[in-house]
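Hey, can you fold this one?
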Amino acid sequence: MSGDSMDIRKYVKFKKLHGQPEESCILDGYVCTKTIAHKKMQSHITNPKIMLLNGSISYQRVLNKLTSLNPVFLQEKEFLTKVVSRVASFEPDVLIVEKSVSQI
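Sure. Predicted structure:
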């Protein structure tokens, strides 16, 4: 046996869904199995523009400091509005974020 055999299980994922084996097919590309955020969002997109974000979309609060909550919430909302506007300016069809996304 030669030393150049490769275990494809590192690169190929198999997913069993409901249905009959005759209904199976091989998809060329990537499949995401995350749930959509809203029922009216598209569940199938042909040739999507995908944006990958390293990190999170959230406001970094200063810990262990006494401040009034109202200005902090206003700063957070303003910061997130700017971030969302910047992301939206690229007009992605799909946005994949590495970490968390603020739910304001």
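The chain has one helix and two strands. Let me know if you want another pass with a different chain boundary.
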